Protein 1
Amino acid sequence: MDKMVIRGGRRLEGEVLVNGAKNAALPLMTSSILTRGWNNFRGIPQLGDIATMKLLLGHLGLEIEGGEDLRIRADNLTCSEAPYNLVKTMRASILVLGPLLARLGRARVSLPGGCAIGARPIDLHLRGLEALGARINLNHGYIEAEAKKLRGSKIYFDTTTVTGTENILMAACLAEGTTVLENAACEPEVVELARVLNKMGARIEGAGTDVITVEGVDGLEGVEHRIMPDRIEAGTFMIAAAITGGEIKINNCRVEHLDALISKLIEAGVTAVPEDKGIRVTAGDELKGVDVKTLPYPGFPTDMQAQIMTLMCLAEGQSVITESIFENRFIHVSELKRMGADIQIQGNSAIIRGGGKLSGAPVMATDLRASASLVLAGLAAEGLTEVSRIYHLDRGYERIEEKLSSLGADIRRVKG
Ligand code: EPU
């Protein structure tokens, strides 16, 4: 298995280009199921999760061509089953459920099961589809859903769910009548999906607020679209600048998507200034500990929690990081402690006593963002850090070692 070997202590400097957003690309790819004619999505990141989604859509009978410029056509959609071997490697595979049901009147999708960061149930996806008139059974580890024609309905989400909102939004596009989603997720990736669905011919209003209204239509057509930049990749480079005492201009970054992170970095003593289609982040003379609580957008993103915790390990004073989205997203803590961090977990909070140093060590993580936090720790640590199991990192960051090297980091991938 490949690992990343990092010699810490280098100041990062220069410019870096952010890729298209993974969590926007995945629902856009599955929205193709609803369309006739070619879709052309530009700026698709070359990531493990995108490769898995291509395999899954190919299995369903969609035609798929290209890489960064991805062409998808669902005119010959034949199969309505998402098998276990593809769903188990990527939970976002559940995003085929709503579109398949709306287009074919049936879907059989493997239940995703738990994952390292928490149980991650899908009850709200299923309840939403049932409200649209689907009959759903769970059999032999599979969700079996059926509905000759979905009917618009009012759906209230007990918890804000990103992919749940996306699944129901896609299904509602081809339902008869009006659907109203209440307590819908407001994440920029949901707004991007709604915008593209509207380009395809859907009638959606209110995306970006917690009430989304969808008027069903008879069919959707393929579109051309350039994908939005990845706010979590951008945020990870912002922390890389702050943690190495460096200065990085991050290009292709929508600053308005990163308000919560930027305000926390400024509070910690980092300078972050928007600059043509990006942001320049400069480490301050002193890094101060700040408290952070993860929340649905526009709150602080859970996908940046591990990375800011690494930064707080080096900040002066104490900080408290509270994870309110996933129940088990502190997997990085024990690894950071092995690098010398002083962190205590109390319930869903981590108390970090910063100000010390990190020292390089062999580490590994079992999820994507935790792996990113360990790479950041390696950049700031004294000596050598080896991050193993980096297939997690490759699921969400394209060529991260090349990008960090171009900024001056001493990092290399060792094939194993
Ligand atoms: N939840 C339920 N029932 C459901 C759905 C969700 O109880 O039916 C709960 C979850 O257990 C969790 C909370 O609701 O406690 C929020 O989960 P959500 O459904 O919003 O997460 P998701 O849609 O599965 C997406 C991203 C994640 C990101 C979360 C939160 C994609 C493909 N994934 O997951 O991204 O952490 O939203 O913002 O969009 C990552 O990129 O590393 C990643 C994990």
Protein 2
Amino acid sequence: MLIKKPADIASSEITPRGLYLSRRAFLRGAAIAGATTLGGGLLGKLASPWEQASAGTKIDGIQKSNFSTNEKITPYKDVTHYNNYYEFSTDKEGPAGLAKNFRTRPWTVKIEGLVSKKKTLDVDSIMKLASPEERIYRHRCVEGWSIVVPWVGFSLSTLLKQVEPLGKAKFVEFTTVYDPSQMPGQRERVLEWPYVEGLRLDEAMHPLTFLCFGMYGEVLPNQDGAPLRLVVPWKYGFKSAKAIVKIAFTEKQPINTWNKATPNEYGFYSNVNPNVDHPRWSQARERRLGEFSKRPTLMFNGYGDQVASLYSGMDLKRYF
Ligand code: MTE
């Protein structure tokens, strides 16, 4: 049996999470205070926006949301150490370590295409467009696992309204970052890079569609999509693009990365649907991370009351 020596035990294992985080915040504060006596140059460095925005920094003023589920939240460790993020690795345990030093500042998001006011916005100014909200959403991956996460952000529509979409705009395309020097997975052609996703305009403007920059009350860890990602809770997880750098309004339906890679397996809509199987497996059940037995998957991931009307009259087997 492996016995841990005290030096091997992380403080996170022996201290309740809240306490150990506030101790980290205290230590950061102490480092900044120490830097004041050592010289202003170092203080300037530590207090840069990059330092303030790093994963694990507490987000202040978070409001609770009526859209939240009251289901049991999946443990932080499971959500942050079992990720799909092919830019870093195809192995789900890989992104947590490989994305650790990924630089999320400076970061801008270009908004273009069929809009009256094209803009390039700094991520920190985007985060200030509205008060941060906590949305506890179910999140179902197409591969059959699911999680319940307290995401932090606000409705994507808050940002999209800023640019005044034109009447001709029917879809919104999301392009994510391309930086093979930092993302080892992009040095291989496992997928076509950059990762692209898309939504119909009404889906993008739906109040449930969430622009996310935090989770569990803190700035997003890099492996979960920092600095800015989507969360579309009634669709399979691959629609929720991470590390977004461009949003374009289009007339034509965007070609999303997974649809391009395997069109018979991954569609454009990708609404969670237990009645439409993936060609290689059933979608009827799912396993929540941290649980042993499977549970039935719900139509639209349980968000049917809010979103089913977006698809009335559509054949969801054809438009999968
Ligand atoms: N976004 C980018 N840029 N690259 C990816 O590989 N994977 C998608 C989605 N967003 C992916 C991405 C898939 S398949 C899923 S299931 C979710 O991210 C996983 O999100 P999570 O790691 O926060 O659970």
Protein 3
Amino acid sequence: MSILDDMAAALSNGSVRVVDLTHTLDPDFPVIVLPPEFGQCARFRMEEVSAYDHRGPAWKWHNISMSEHTGTHFDAPSHWVSGRDLPSNSVDAIPPQDLVGPVVVLDCVAPAAKNADFLLAVEDIVAWEARHGRIPAKAWVLMRTDWSKKSGAAYLNLQEDGAHSPGPSSDAIQFLINERDIRGFGTETVGTDAGQAGHMVPPYPAHYFLHGAGRYGLQCLSNLDQLPATGAVLIAPPLKIKDGTGSPLRVLALIEDVT
Ligand code: MN
């Protein structure tokens, strides 16, 4: 049998399962809030066009609007100034081969529960590799914090001095790119950077270094508690928006039942 025949059989008999890592697009789902001098990200909106009525007797449909960066979404290299001049840097130009690949999950639940400003450090990655093996090249690295289980004001966790949520340190993201050649980095929070990352050097280092190196971001992920630390495959194709800097998307993981 071919690999894909085996895969189809495994999907059919349940030995490979599909896990949905996506939040529902909903007007109430929080979007990132920037300082007031900057332009702001729009929430998801949906208006009814018809609902089996005089506006369309046999059909129901909606018009929707949102930011490229609303809900569970993908960040392309053109999202950041560091990636503005790279080739194939927008969502419509990313090679499709890049949109399916291996994924590892770093469990940061305990430290993030103790400290909303927890920063993933290089030492945490090295300790994770001592248990699970080296992060493979071109892997998605997802930072699990269980932040997706928060809702409402607790999700952004805005204080007088801005948002407080966990993320990677500048050193950690550079290590993942330069030493491990990752495909991208994903979080359960509203951005790939920590809530206070605007004060870091450079500001928003995950965005700065990932996109400057042609790597991708995923944020507002959920259900990371259903993934194994290693061995899953991520399917994360953004919408094909011309010159788009990002896009809401459905993120799926394939996991193998090894029991
Ligand atoms: Mn984004």
